[in-house]
Amino acid sequence: MISLKQALKLSQDELRVLKKELNERAKKEKKIGAYVEQFLDCDLSDSCDGIPVAIKDNISVKDWPLTCASKILQGYIAPYDASAIKNLKQNGFSPFGRCNMDEFAMGNATQSSYYGKTLNPTNLSKVAGGSSGGSAAAVGADIALASLGSDTGGSVRQPAAFCACVGFKPSYGRVSRYGLAAYSSSLDQIGTITKSVEDASILYDAIAGYDELDSTSAKIEFQKTHDKLNPNKKLRIIAIKNYIEKANPEVKQALMQSLDKLKANGHEIVFKDLLDFKYDIAAYYIIATAEASANLSRYDGLRYGRRAENIENLKDLYVKSRSEGFGDEVKRRILLGCFVLSSGYYDAYYIKAQKARALIKNKYNELLSDCDLIFMPVTPSTAFDLNSKKSPIDSYLEDIFTISVNLAGLGAISVPVAKDKEGLNISAQLICKAYDEQTLLDGALSLENIIKNQ
Ligand code: GLN
Which residues form a coiled coil (predicted)? Predict the structure, then answer.
């Protein structure tokens, strides 16, 4: 598959041929279930003229269906472009196909979509990761050049790691959330999934920047990164010892070897600890569900998408539409979110979670004031078997290395560094100070080059 850099040089005719090829290949790889269109037996969109970029089904593209892989949004058509899509189009790219995902971006395995599961292109008995599993599987299976996903607690970095791609979550507020269907507004961020760090930088440059339509957009200077990419900078990197220790033996070994290589190439490596991740999980699943319960209240059967039939009164309409429209995990989170926000429990859970969030953020800032980047695992293991998580808690524990970055609002990237004995990808995660995406991409490119040239 050609890189985005090469694609930028193609003529309109060549781009048309490329899109046809992608479409044909996607049909052959239908069993992976990377695109929503494949479940619906229709072609991927080829209506625009730019370089094709696959889009997660929770980012609005004007006149396209937008369903967040949920039954409740069946029939809804986005009336406008998300700001990230508008920027994409202005920079020579065009949306190409809707990628499958966990319903409303809640999950880490892309097994809860209304359309069906997405499978891991490296090994079809494994999950693709999630919630942006379709976006990652499409790039991993060479049926997309690059894709957009969203990352609330790891949903770009983790599936990218499972599908052997680069997953980049910019700092909170760097990419506009306008037109991204909200899950947890204080954590959500659009990110990129690509074949390489250089492509991540190209795609990031095309979508990022201040947007007055998003009140949480970062109103600070944004400079493009690609023309300044420099893998030769020598960086001081803090490796998180207590997290690396927690990963499974193969992941741990691969990360320790990567650190040795970084050191041999002139980077300074220092080992330090972060807080116990039990605080991350507790704080994240309280804050994310609290915000989700509020954000998802808009899906009432009246305003968007699908409405239940045989309704007797207004209450019946709400109850039936929501009961029929949402899947189990989404309902579980709405219930949990309402509970932690209810009077009597608000102080005990929600306020406490906000305090834990401040603590986590402070700890990161303390470490980042003493280094350029932080290094740690993305996932405790490589891609796990389909249907292997038996309880919601089992599943939530898969997120231990990704969610704290969102709680702290930082930028982070997952970069492939090794394979396990089954041939599944292992990635390392690099984290930067808020808005220092340039250093993050420089360090990631250095790591990628070291691994490729070993
Ligand atoms: N797995 C996490 C969750 O289920 C993160 C999801 C995401 O980043 N969208 O909430």
Answer: 1-28
pTM above 0.85, yes or no: yes
The structural domains of the chain, with segments of one domain joined by +, span: 4-273+365-453
Active site (annotated) includes residue 131: yes
Specify burial of residue 238 (Cβ count, 10 A radius: 0-12, 13-18, 19+): buried
Active site residue 56: yes
CA distance 167 to 153: 13
Per the listing, tokens 């201040």 go with 210
pLDDT band for position 169 (50/70/90)?
Answer: very high
Closest residue (by CA) to atom 4 of ligand 1? 107
Peptide bond before 131: cis, by omega within 30 degrees of 0? yes
Q: Which CATH superfamily is domain 4-273+365-453 in?
A: Amidase signature (AS) domain (3.90.1300.10)
**Confidence tier at 47 by pLDDT (50, 70, 90):** low
* 371-390 mean pLDDT: 97
Query: Is 3 known to be catalytic?
Result: no
Token pair for residue 413? Answer: 């990237």
Q: Token pair 């926000």 is at which residue?
A: 341
Query: Measuring from each residue's beta carbon to the nearest atom of ligand 1, which residues come in under 6 Å?
Result: 105-108, 131, 150-155, 183, 288, 399
pLDDT on residue 320: 97
CA–CA distances in Å: residue 97 to residues 22, 209, 302, 356: 10, 24, 27, 39
Q: In the structure encoding, which two tokens stand for residue 229, read together?
A: 């990419």
Decide if pLDDT at 234 tops 70.
Answer: yes
The one catalytic residue among 19, 56, 117, 126: 56
**How far, in Å, is the centroid of ligand 1 from the Cα of 292?**
11
